[in-house]
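For the sake of transparency, this paper describes our internal protein records without simplification. Because each token names a local backbone shape, the row as a whole describes the fold. One such record is reproduced below, unchanged from the form in which we store it.
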Amino acid sequence: MTDDQQKTTEQDTAKDTPEDPVVTYILNAVSDGSEVSPNAIAQKIAADKAKPKDPQDIWRKYMTAVRQQAIFLARNGRLEIVRKGEVADPNDFKGLYKLRLPRS
């Protein structure tokens, strides 16, 4: 298989694969154009999926998934990671951040 055939196969597979539910939560949260903290997204996911016996801080369980998917979306140009008011490099950022749709 040549490189071009492999790239085409990977692109076709990506189109056929449904998006991760966390991606859907992220994109819904930023759809109005505002900046949203990853904590708020994780808390929304936890509120929708939590069972009555779960602890109140169960949302922390979803923080890693939100960060990973935010990085994925930022690398693909579908999202911006904002740190201290500036767009951060998705491959190299630390600390508190917010998420927003890309601005022209």
In short: The mean pLDDT is 88. The chain has four helices and three strands. Strands lie at 80-83, 86-87, 98-100. Residues 29 and 40 are 9 Å apart (CA to CA).
